[in-house]
Every structure is written in C-alpha cells, then in structure tokens.
Amino acid sequence: MGMDFSTLRTLISRYCAGEENCVDTRTVYIGHKEPPPGAEAFIQQRFPDNRIVSSKYTFWNFIPKNMFEQFRRVANFYFLIIFLVQLIIDTPTSPVTSGLPLFFVIIVTAIKQGYEDWLRHKADKAVNQCLVQVVQHGKVSRKHSRKLTVGDVVYVKEDESFPCDLILLSSSRDDGTCYVTTASLDGESSHKTYHAVQETKAYKTEEEVNCIHATIDCEQPQPDLYKFRGNINIYMGNEPVSRSLASQNLLLRGATLKNTEYIYGVAIYTGMETKMALNYQSKSQKRSAVEKSMNAYLVVYLCILISKAVINTALKYVWQADPNRDEPWYNGKTESERQRHVLIRAFTDFLAFMVLFNYIIPVSMYVTVEMQKFLGSYFIMWDDEMFDEELGERAVVNTSDLNEELGQVEYVFTDKTGTLTENNMEFIECCVDGNVYVPDIICNGQVMPGAAGIDMIDTSPGPEAREREELFFRALCLCHTVQVKEEETVDGIKHGIHQGKSSSFYISSSPDEVALVEGMKRLGFTYLRLKDGQMEILNREDEIERFELLEVLTFDSVRRRMSVIVRSSTGELYLFCKGADSSIFPRVVSGKMEQIKARVERNAVEGLRTLCVAYRRLSPEQYEQVCHLLTRAKLEFQDQDKLVAEAYDLIERDLILLGATAVEDRLQEKAADTIESLHKAGMKVWVLTGDKMETAAATCYASKLFRRSTQILELTTKRTEEQSLHDVLFELSRTVLRHYGSMPRDASSGLSSEYIDYGLIIDGATLSAVMRPSQEDSNSGNYKEIFLEICRNCSAVLCCRMAPLQKAQIVKMIKSSKEHPITLAIGDGANDVSMILEAHVGIGIMGKEGRQAVRNSDYAIPKFKHLKKMLLVHGHYYYIRISELVQYFFYKNVCFIFPQFLYQFFCGFSQQPLYDTAYLTLYNISFTSLPILLYSLMEQHINMDILKKEPTLYRDIAKNSLLTWPIFIYWTVLGVYDAIVMFFGAYFLFDNTTFTSNGQMFGNWTFGTLVFTVLVFTVTFKLALDTHYWTWINHFVIWGSLVFFVVFSLLWGGIIWPFLNYQRMYYVFMQMLSSGPAWLSIILLITASLLPDVVKKVFWRALWPTTTERIQSADKLYKGQLSEFTPLAALHPPPRAGDHQRGSGTQRNPQRSDTPNKKVMFTRWQRAPDYRTFTPLLRFTDGSRLSRPGNASSGAGPETSV
Amino acid sequence: MVKEEQEESSNRPDNTAFTQQRLPAWQPILSASIVIPMFLLIGAAFIGVGVALFITSRDIQLQELDYTGDDSEHPCFKCRTNTEKCTCSMTFSIPTLFKGPVFFYYGLTNYFQNQRKYGASKDDNQLYGDLNYFTSPSTDCDPYTRDSKNMPIVPCGALANSMFNDTFTLSHTVNGVQKIVPLDGKGIAWWTDYNIKYRNPSITPLINAFNGTKKPTNWPKPIYELDTTDVYNNGFINQDFLVWMRRAALPDFRKLYRRITHDDYAAGLPAGNYTLTIAYNYPVHSFNGKKKVVLSNVSWMGGKNDFLGIAYIVVGSMCVVMSVVMLIVYARFKFAEDV
C-alpha cells in the first residue's frame, strides 16, 4: 500500500512540473530503490540525463540562430538595412554592392562558428558516448555515459575520471577514502582526499553495493565547486541512519581518481547540472578603449553620412524647383512617378543618397579589425621570449579583443604571492618562546650552521622549555592538510625529498604547509602519514608517535587560520591552531607573547611569511561540546557556513601561544626590473595582497616598488586607532598636495621624481572604512574622493590584508574614478580571479596555485617578468597598429565617398554613382584591404629591443593619444582634401576637352575610373608613407594590391561579361590608359594629394619630434646598433659615454664629422640624455611631461616604513 | 577565441624570424635629408613637364561657335523656338592655317546626360541586337518603352530618344565660291563600341528586324536609316548614335561630330572665310542650354587644356618652395636626425 501511495505521489509530482522547480533540495534514491514504507515519502523529481551539450547550435537551428546572432551586432544590422533598402527602392547602386560584402562577412563568420560548433559537437559526442560502468542488479554493466541517470551507482577505476557528480559510497581503501586530482577543474594538481560515509564504506563489491538502501537529500545544483550540503539516510534494519554530507563526499565530474583502486559512487548531478557544466558560463565581454573610440568615430561618420544625404536631398528639391530641371523634355517621368507624393519622393531620395554614401562606413573595417586582432594574438603566443623553459609554458591568449589595450595600461594591480614572488616556499626559522631555531642548511654535503647570534637548537633550554619546544614541533607536524605521496611519479608539481627508505613527497594545495612540514623534518620531527585516522610522526628518537585525528577546522581566508583536534596515544586531547599573527594573538591567553611578537615583526620586515602556532588542551567534556557544536553546524542546510564559522570561533579560543614560523618566498626573477620598467613607462603599480603589512612592504622594497627615496604614507588600522580616519585622510592629502600645489600640476601622467615620490600603504580594514558609504556626517562621503586624490599622487600603493573581493573593489574604484584609467590586474591564484575579471585587462600567471586565474584571464603568461614584453612591446605595437588601422579606414573611405558626394552637384543630385559597381564593391574588400591588414600585423615603428630598453616610450601612447579627436580630424580633413583634389582635378581636366589624340571623347565612366585610379593609388601610397617597417610581406601586399587593381581593371573592362546586363566598363580602363594626358593627370593628382601629408610629416618631425621619431632617427643613424650605446638607453649616462658615442658616430659617418651641428648635439646629449630634452632650442610642448631623474635624489631621504 | 595550444611534444613556439616578428625590414625615414632633394627633383620634373604641356596646349587651335541664337541679332535666332525644320548659317574666318587633322565637335551646356535615371533609361539587350527585347523592352526605358499605340520602341529609353539631331555642313569660300568641306563621320566613336559592345541583329536587310517596332518618338528617321550614305553605318552601330550613347561626365560637354581628314583639307583648314550651315532641330531653350560647334586640332596630349600644364607648374613650384622652406628650417634649427 505504502509503495503504491508513493508511486502515486511520484506520478502527481511529475505532472506538476511547475512546482518541482521551486523545490530547493533534491532527493536521490540510491540504485533507484524506493525508501522503505513508513519512511518519509519524498517527492521524486525528474532529472536530466548525463548528456553534456557544449555546442550552441543543432543542425536545424544553425542557420536561423546564427543569423539572428550575427545580425544582432549593430554593424551587421546596419548593412542589412542598407541592403534591404537597395532591394526595395530604386537605388543608384545595385544591391550586389552592399550585399556581396555583407554576405561574404556573414558567411565567413557562419562557417567559422559552424566549424567551431562542429568541433564541440564532436567533443560532446565523444564524451557522451564513452562507456561507464554502472552497478545494475548486483552486476557491473557498461553504459554510454549519456544514459547515466541520477541515482545510478557508478563504478570508477583508478585514473578514470568521474562521469558525473557522485557521492562517494565506498572505495577500495578500508578507511573509505579516495584520492582525487581536480587538475582539469581548477588546476590544482594536488591530491585531495575524499571520504565515504561511515555506514557505506564497508560495501565493497558490486553485490554488496547493490544492497545499499538509502536516499540522499541534497541541494539543487549550484556552480560553486567547493560547496555542497546534503544528507544521506541509510535504511539499515528499521532505524534509518542520517549522516550529513559535505563537499568532501562529493566527487566532481572532470576530476580523476588517483592512488585508489576503485570507488563506488552514486550519481546525484548529471549532464548539464554537474558543477563542471555549470561553470562553463562565458565571461562577460571586455571592450577596449580603441573600440570605444572607434564607435565614437562611427557615430561621427554616421552623422556625416546622414547630413550628406539630407543636404543632397534638400538641394535636390531646391534645384528641381524649376520644372525644366526637374523634368527636362529629354528625360520625362512616368505617370506613376509624377503622381507620387513629394514627401515619399523625398524620402526615397534620402534613402537613395544614404545607399550611395553608405560605403563611408565600411563593413570590411569590422572584418579587418577582427582579423587583425585574431591573427595578431598569434604573435603573442608565438613569442619565444615569453616562453618559460622551466614550466614549459608559453603565453596564452584567451581574448584577442584586447591586444591594443595592453598598450594603454595606466594602473597595474598585482598580486604578491606567486606573482611578484615565486611561491616557492622555504622554511627559514622558527621561534619557540623566544628561542630561534634554524634548520641545518644542507649545502654541498656540508652542514652549514645558521647565522651567528641566533640561538641554536643545541643550546639546551631546560626541561620545561624543551617540552614546549617539542609540543611546538608536534603541533606543526599535525596541524596541516599535507598528504604523503609514496611514489616517484606524481602527475603534478613535485615537492620531494627523500624520506627514510621509501621515497615520498609531501603534497598540499598550500606550499607554505609543505615548507613547514619539510622544515620540521629537518628539525627532527617527520610526518609520516595519515593512516586509519591516525597521524604518524617520527620523532627525534626515531620513535613513531601516533595521534588520532579527530577534527580538522579547515583554513579559510576570513579566519586566516586552521586548527586540528587530535588525541595523543596517552589519551590527551589537543587543539593545535596555526594562522596569521593578527588572527592568533587576540585569541591567545598565555605564552611569551612579547618576544614572539617582536620576532614575528622582525621576520616580517625581512619579507618572510610568518605564522603563529598555538595550542589548547581540551578536556573530554570540552571535546564533547566541540563535537556537538560542529555536528550541529554541519547538519544544518541553511546558513551552514555561518554556523560553522561561529562554531570555529567558539572552539579556537583561550589558546596558549607556542611560537612562530618564518617561511621565505623569494622574489621572481627580474621582478624588480619589471616593476621599474612599468614605473618608467608611467604606470602606477599597486600591490594587492592578503599578506601582512610588514612582509608585503619588504617585498615592495625588494621589488623596487618603493625606493629608498620614496616617502611612505601609511593608512593603516594602527594609525586610524590613534587619529580618526577623517584626520588621517586630510593630513595625508595635505602632505601630498602641498608639493603638487606649488608646481604646475601634470595630472596622472605618472612618476614625477622631481618631486617627492610617494608610496601609500593601506590595509584591508581601513580600506573598507574608506569605501564604506557615508553614515554619520556628510564629510565621510568625500573619503573616497580624498583617498583617490592621494592615490593619484602616489607612484606606488601597497594594499595589504586584502580579501579577494576587496581586490576587485579597489580595481573597480580606480576604474570608475573620474579619469577612467585603463587598469590591468595580474595574479596567479583563485583569490585574484575577481580582480582579473574586474580589470580592463586581466592577466593570469601560470603559477603553482592552479589554473583558475589563467582560465579567467584575458592573457596568461608564465612569469611576472613577461609582463614587460607583453605591455611594452606587444601592447605598444598593437596600439600603434590598430590606431593606424582605424584612422586609415576612416580616411580611405572619406577619400572614396567624398568625390561621389561632390559629383552629385554636377549630375543634378540624381544619385548617379561616380564609380562602377565593381569598384564600389571591391574597393574595401580587395583593392585596399590587404595592405592595411598586413600593416596592422607587421608594423614596428621602433625596434623591439629599444622598446624594452626604453620604457618611457610607452608614455607616448598613453591615454589613447593616437586616437584623439584632433588626430581624427586631421585624418578626416586629409581625406576630404584628397577627395577634393581628386574630384576637381579630374573635373578640370575633363572640362570640355579631349584626352585622346584621335579626338574621341570620354564618358562619365572614364571620369569615374580616372578618379578611382587616383584614389586607389593615393590611399595605398599614403599607407606606404606611414609604413616604417617594410618586410617583404609589406612590399608584396602594397605593390601587389596596386598590380591587382590594374589587372582587375584590365580584365573587368577587357571582356564582355556574359552574366552582366550592362557593359558600361567595357574598354574604359584601356581607353583611359591609352591616353597620355590621363597618365599625366593621374601622376599629378596622386602627387598633389600626398604632398601636404608629406610636408606635414617632415616639418613635424623636424620641429616637434616625438620621442618615437627621435629614436627612429637615432636608430637609423647607428644602423640598429643603438641599443649598445648606453646614452640612448640609460637615464644616467656615464660622462664618457657621450665621447664613446661620438667616436662611433664619427666612424660611421666620417663624411659628416666636420658638421658643427654634431658637436652641439652631443654636448646636449651628454648633459641630458633624455630625448625630450636634448634639443632645447626647439619648442617642446610636451617636454615637461618627462621627469629629470637626475634630480630624483633630492627627495626625501630613505625612510623606513615599519 | 584563440584556443590554448595543445601541449604535445614541445610547447615551445617556433623560433623563426616571422613568428618572432624579426623579419628583416627596410626602415625608411622621411627625414629632411631625403625629402629635400626628392622634392627638388620632383619639383624640377613637374615644372619641366608643366611648361611642355602648357606650350603644347597653347599651340592647339580652337574655333568655337555658339549657335544657340539667344541673341536677336544672331542668324539662328529665328530657329530658336521654331518647331518646323529650320536652317541657319554662320560665317567665320580662320586667320592662319588650322592644322589638321581638324575635329568637328558639337557642344551642349546645362544638359544633364549624367542624370542617373536618364542614363539608365536604355535596354542593353536591345542594343546588343537581342530580338527578344525588341518586342518587350526593359521597363528601365519607361516612359519611353512604348508609344501611344503601345508599340514597342526600338531603341527604347530616354537616352536614345533624345539623340542630338542637328546637322551641319561646313563650306569654305574659295574665290567667292562656296566649297563644301568634306566631313568624315567614321572613327568618331570608340572602335570597341561599334565592333563589339553594340550589335545589330543578324538579319538582312536590317529593316526586317524592326518589324513590329516603332522608332523613338523624337526621331525623324528610324534607326536603320540613320546613315543614308553607308548601309553599314546604320542600326545600333551608327557612330553618331554611339557617340550620343556614351554619356558625358559633366553637364557642359562636347561630343565629336565629324573629322576633317579628306582631300584638300587633310592637312588642315586653310586660312579664309567659312560658312557653317546648321539644320536647327534640337531644342535647348527650355532648360537654358547652349549649343555650339567647336573646331579643334589635337596634339600628343589631346585637346586644348591649359589646366594640366598650369597644375603641373603649380605643384612643381610648390615642391620647390617647400624644399627651400625645409632647407631654411634645416639651416636654422638643425634637424635632430641629421647630425
């Protein structure tokens, strides 16, 4: 009866599909076995099968869906509208002219997306078809992965990956644990331990497993990989046993079973509901500043287009007011045309003009920009200098949309650990009750003693102290989550030292822990393994001590500590706790706090990572209470995290301080050099770290973020305790602004070492106080502004004690400050992901803390030092390249369309196109597309090595300086000028004369072809003039394009094309070329068009040269050997360097050695080697922007911050 | 967008000049030391070409006769509004020998042959001799597709319909006797037009092809009778027709009417008095147009056009001036790059 009842319920619930979505838990019947009668009846839900669908389209919906998505882009939609207008109304140009490029673009994109989707389909199919082993009716049978359903019991062998999210039931190990690596999920290659529930771990064969009668209640799937709550109800006998389940019971799809022969698990989330699938979601698209300028220009051009159409339409009706012009006798109208309403006619005319001029916004610009970005990103991946031999990794490009943004960075937010430092921890010392221990450093087989003046381990400190010392060592041996891997080969990073007879490695997700355990080993206490809940330690006397591991209070970044509760073999209960000093000290009741605190601070100043260790002896009653607290918290579904945190808080108190440890994290190779370059390049570098202030500050000094001359401003809890935040902020801002107030302020262009160089240190708590929205008085609302003002004037900022979310908040705050600077965030760990996603450009370091940062980044590089090339070379190049690309595209389309606009004044505003359809169509697609594309891939205005050597060059392009309105207007005016020269040049040449020696006349198509020929040559030559780096590829495409144009024109006019219903171009081009004056006028018009630009270039280069141009000239002079000469590269030239250079200069240019100019220049060069200042005779508008490093030392003297 | 490279054998990128962006390259700089000589050179060359062009252009003789007749004194004034056949004649004199070959043009002003709809108003298939389109011409020709009796017009369209139909005779007064100057109507259109681009239907006699069609309403004669002297110069390949069908680029245009290459006039028109007799048919009064006749000879650079020569001289001088200015700046300020 009961069975029937529940079946009925199941049926009912199935038909109430609407309701089941509201249920926030799901119930899983293990092995599809209904719970026994009498048990609480659950509502059975429907679950999806285990099919993974990563593809976007199916065969049937590809065309409509893909079309819809493509036409959602504004540009595509615009061109579609133009095309439709051409189809509907009688327009001057055939629909082919806009339809062909549009459909070309659409089809190419569709093919690309279709291919990508096909690959995804294939991958999906492979995954879905793969066989998994499932226990059915007491036997293991094979099933396609996609047929797996929730409730199936799955059998997984070693090195297989889990087909869906499973709850571990039992494993081949007696303790019901298994080891898993989640490398493909979050990149952490360490082995993680998962546990089976006590009651099920004994079921080890398929028959036994088949007997398990249980249900699982768990939450509905959610994407967080590390969160899971559930309950298992096991029906044994009459009494159902309920156990809580947590993420340590959940095996995730995508993870791999390691070190364990087999496991049985029950599927709870399948297919698209697995945590892996839920994490597929794509990141929000980032847009670069260049793209924003491009869109702004586009709007301007759209306005130009519309105004052109409106002007022409209006003029047409003014002009046509005379009926003899509107309808001369030779050009009558049809009756229907006459009767059409004037407004409709005007609107049609407007549309026709729009169509005629629509080429001013070329569809191909979007394609070219996309191709440039896509292909360009390969150069980043191909860069051999960004390949790291050690890791075997090269740079990875996840988003190619941001290449040029790399050249625009103003703020760099960097993580410390693993980014600036190597995250390769080495145990340095520990301090127990004020006695310092340094492990023997083994060096070339010799035992090196620690530095003198430090108490060595041999100094016997007395029996009581010795006991505490051993307790400290035991504490460190027990309080961790390190695993022991007993094999030589591990699929991951090895942390290995030989351990007794068998070779073992310590593996942990935290390198600090490994360093500590290894350090303990060197001090005599070796952690052996965790077996059957017993932790085994080999002590100094080579005896094995066993401790029963009762509870692990795991580490989290909020508490910043972790604890274990163990029972020693004598039955005593201990709680060992280790964590950051700030989180330990408040909880300590006794111990030698003063000495330890002093030592910790000393170590922190040296840049070591410190941890404090404390313990607490628990009475059995207290332990009982602890267990009660924990189980209650863990059983709770809602607010579990909060309850657990509260429970931890209650447990970890009344501690007795044992000592502290110090671990060194060395700076990454060339980190200081990189930071210095970034500073010189005008970027502001902020270090955001979770570390303590002193450690972080020491790293900052070591990495030259702070120099000796830097005046440190502190904004920390320590200070705000003494004064109110308000006062501190105002005082700091006064300090900072005093100096800048007296000088002409040059906002935000970075480092100004003529003045005092400021560095700011702020900690997380103060930061959140600053960021907090105003509560009490109106003044506090200004805190943020004042803070930003201070930050803007500091060359370096260090934010310590930051939570991951705070990192993102800082980035966001700077991003949205009123100057809207471009930000870059770089980090290696999962805690940096939020800021990587928040910043304009997110860069991941392929560090030791997994792949999370890399996966979420826009670019990933193996080491921090690669950032230098990434920004200074690739970023610079791509910015230069794309800005030219964008400006040139607008320019060439003005040149293209403006003559057509002018022609309307001479053809009665009748929308007569000037150029033939083929020319209109192909101008942007083939005649002028490749040179600019290749330019935007190959151009190097300055040699790569110089860019790296001379980071100040980066300032030349800061603030989107090549895409400013004046430059845009210059290009547009140049385009209009060229168009006027071309059109009126041709106009006056055609004016009532014959071009040929046989007296025959040319028609309108010859006129258009002449203008078009001049146009194609002019815009191509203009690009050739701008090209500074002529490789054979540039030669090939530039001259090739012109040749192609000529060949095409000959062919197009040379044949009667059977598929065309008009032959208006027949022989036009040849006829034109057969005439001498046509050749002469083509040469004349090209020259006249290019002349002003060349003159402008030469004069600007001579009178107001940019740093770039100076370097180009200098580079040319020294034939690429520039980088060898220090005066050009270094900021402080040795006095003889100038002579040296003069010497070589003379050698290279003996014929010039007697010019008097030369000496003058070199003298200047010697005095101030800076490019901006070495010709002070000339006017410099921008000279003040650059610092005079020579005066830098006049700033404040060295100041210690701590 | 870009997938991570597969970590196969070695992840190391190819170390080639291309992938490392280190292709050998020529790196020119527009420095004054290059530009100044270049400008001087270009300037000199342009001035030279310009002077040559200008002198050549000045040597070209041009005789222009406006015969619109707007002025009441003008002999053609009477014909201006006359709808009937009207003939007028003008006299002019040539002071010196007008060197041959002399080309005889007619010119129209304020006439928009480049009007879009006007230019599109023709049926290319008809003009290619496709008989199917004789009976059903393209609607592009509206409203000149069919006549009032709904008969198809061949050649249809505004362009053909408005063909210029004034005719001219030129006579030379030799010893008081009018001597007709022979005018050559061949070779006035593009060779490709009458040989390839336009075709007559391959039916002989040509007239049969036009059964069931009408001539354009403005035409006095059907297309197969345009040239009474030469049967092969009729139909769509009639050269006067082809000259008209090649649309002018601008509203003031000139079209070749005849060449003077025959007999005594092959070397040119001798000095003397000439009479131009005009069969005045073509109305231009309504749109304020002007009609004229132009006699011109050509040089290697085509017809008379001072603009090209002047433009060359101007651009050339600009180059020279610029190079001088650059030189001054160079001397005064010592360009940084040219140490």
Automatic annotation (TrEMBL), chain B:
Matching entries from InterPro entries are given as:
CDC50/LEM3_fam
UniProt-listed GO biological process terms: phospholipid translocation
> Where does the UniProt annotation locate this protein?
Membrane
Q: Which family does it belong to?
A: Belongs to the CDC50/LEM3 family.
Tell me where the transmembrane regions lie: 29-55, 310-333
- Reading the lineage from the top rank, the first entry is Eukaryota
- Give the keywords, sorted: Membrane, Transmembrane, Transmembrane helix
**One Pfam annotation, family name?**
CDC50
User: Which Gene Ontology CC terms are recorded?
Assistant: endoplasmic reticulum; Golgi apparatus; plasma membrane
Protein name, please? Cell cycle control protein
